[in-house]
Specification:
- By secondary structure, this protein is an all-alpha fold.
- It folds into two domains: 109 residues, Alpha Horseshoe (Serine Threonine Protein Phosphatase 5, Tetratricopeptide repeat); 40 residues.
- Helix content is 72%, strand content 0%.
- It contains nine helices and no strands.
- It starts with a helix and ends with a helix.
Length: 166
């Protein structure tokens, strides 16, 4: 639980998202979400706008938070991406993907210990998430202490085994 407190210092549970409210821009939130998905490959800026419209209508669309976070991350807005991954986790704390994405955003901001904790949360939910094994191995290896390096080797071996199996 200590890791969760550090990972969610300002956002503690879905109640912080506030009450659901109706979408004000003509389309239901789910339609805005689908529009965002459709636009991602051709017009990421329009996809970002569509996800924002969806979230204005339903702040509890975890998938919209995740997709918006990914697009913002790709656009270099890593802190904003982190915020959306955290909000997605407020809705669904059991998603290995959301934990993984949060770990990547935190790692890209240079906060190694928090990134390791997020990757471990992702792996606790899905031990077959190869990229989480790879990322945590790299972070642990750089720590330099023998125990962390041994753990890094185990994660790297698991990563390789999962890659061979796929």
């Amino acid at each position: 639980m200590g890791d969760l407190v550090r990972l969610f210092p300002k956002v503690d549970g879905a109640r912080d998202l506030g009450p659901r409210k109706p979408c004000r821009r003509g389309l239901p939130a789910a339609s805005w979400y689908e529009r965002g998905v459709a636009l991602e490959a051709t017009d990421p800026r329009a996809a970002i706008a569509a996800y924002r419209h969806a979230l204005a209508g339903d702040r509890f669309l975890a998938e919209a938070h995740c997709n918006l976070g990914r697009l913002l991350h790709e656009a270099g807005q890593v802190a904003a991406a982190e915020a959306h991954y955290r909000l997605a986790l407020c809705v669904d704390r059991d998603s290995a993907l959301y934990w993984f994405n949060l770990g990547v955003a935190i790692e890209d901001q240079g906060r190694r210990a928090e990134a390791i904790a997020a990757y471990r949360e992702a792996l606790a939910r899905d031990a077959h998430l190869a990229d989480a094994h790879y990322n945590v191995a790299g972070l642990l290896e750089r720590s330099g202490d023998l125990r962390s390096v041994r753990e890094a080797v185990r994660h790297l071996q698991t990563y390789r085994a999962l890659r061979r199996a796929s």
